[in-house]
Amino acid sequence: MTQPLPHQYPRPLEGIRVLDLTVALAGPYATLMLGGMGAEVIRVEQPGGGDIARDNPPFVGKDGVHFGSRQEGEVSLTILNRARNKKSITLDLKQAKGRQLLARLAVECDVVVENMSEGTAARLGADYETLSRANPRIVYCSINSLGDPSAYPGLKGMDIIAQALSGLMEVTGAPHGGPTRVGVPVGDLLAPVYAVNGILAALIQRGRTGEGQHVKVSMLDCLASWVAEEHFDVVARAGLPTRSGNFHDRLVPFGIYKTTDGAVAIAAFQPAWMKALMEAMSRPELLDDPRFNKRGPRMANATALNQIVQEWTRGLTADAVVEELFTRRNVPAARVRKPQEVLGDPHLHSTGALTQINHPLLSDDGAVGMGLPIQFSKAHAQFDKPAVELGASNAQIYADLLGLTAEQLAQLKTGNVI
Fold this sequence. Notes:
Layout: E1 17-21, H1 26-36, E2 40-45, E3 59-61, E4 64-66, E5 75-76, H2 77-82, E6 87-90, H3 96-107, E7 111-114, H4 120-123, H5 128-134, E8 139-144, H6 159-166, H7 186-209, E9 213-218, H8 219-227, H9 232-237, E10 254-259, E11 262-267, H10 271-280, H11 295-300, H12 302-313, H13 318-329, E12 333-335, H14 339-343, H15 346-351, E13 354-357, E14 367-370, H16 394-401, H17 406-414
Parallel strand pairs: 1-2, 1-7, 2-6, 7-8, 8-9
Antiparallel strand pairs: 3-4, 3-5, 10-11, 11-12, 13-14
Helix pairs in contact: 1-7, 3-5, 6-8, 7-8
């Protein structure tokens, strides 16, 4: 079992400073990854309120975790998850003094990340054109929902909207059912992964040219590029259904099969696996059946073959199927696990894919949060610094980094600039 590296190793992005102008999930997840890899992330939020996600239940307080209304002194578990490894400052960009401070902060940073609604960054003086004039070396990343400019002006680009427009919903779900939303906000989680790739590539290029640039990523673009992987245009011309549900007829036997206590995933499309599956089922004669003896006929008769496999698995537990197929015969098979099982998997915690969220308000049981599923042989990277309160880093950033005096800070606070 892989063990996380000791913390005496350096972080790969040490020395990189990120100005985080993000909200909700897509943007904060990108800066979370950068922070986990060692970048100094300075998160900017509106004074007095902050990110809209701060009002996302469940909330954590002295009486534990609950899904009611947020009370004084409580914090959203969402924020505890997404704001780790970040500093927090407040800044009102609607005020001229706020925009001036933002430009000064941009001079001190390597990267800016934002996911504001279309046109908002420009109105607040936080757009690439403005901040790159202050710092030509800045790598500025915009994460948006439906493109910039959007092909759907005025449409609020939530994850469900991006999934719908990308075609992903139409290819997800049962063949004779309706379009199905992916069970996690895949657009909100996928776009920031591409964004981080773009940021790192731009930083590498800056190392050669000395110039920054504008990196743009949209949820719709990312999801549509995934849909194109399956060549659904060719599938449609062949008259095949776009939704395959829990089965993949081109690779049959390949799917999710019911058992007495749940379900099991089986992938037995290779000849040796198919043979082993038929032997496990005590149905070796099916290997000579013209419907199933080759992949082409099996595809045409996928429903019949899946029903035969389903009849066998339905009389066994999931663990018994896995024992018979994988353990004894090396056929790919796995029990379909519940999220609670996955979140408690010690192996996934040991690799860093999952981490325990540590915060004074959380009990010893705590909560499991997103980990950084990247391992380095000579670097340490993980979300291991707890989220801080809104504006907790104001003095450090404005005084230490920008050199403002205590009197200036007091004036900015009185004027609700910070």
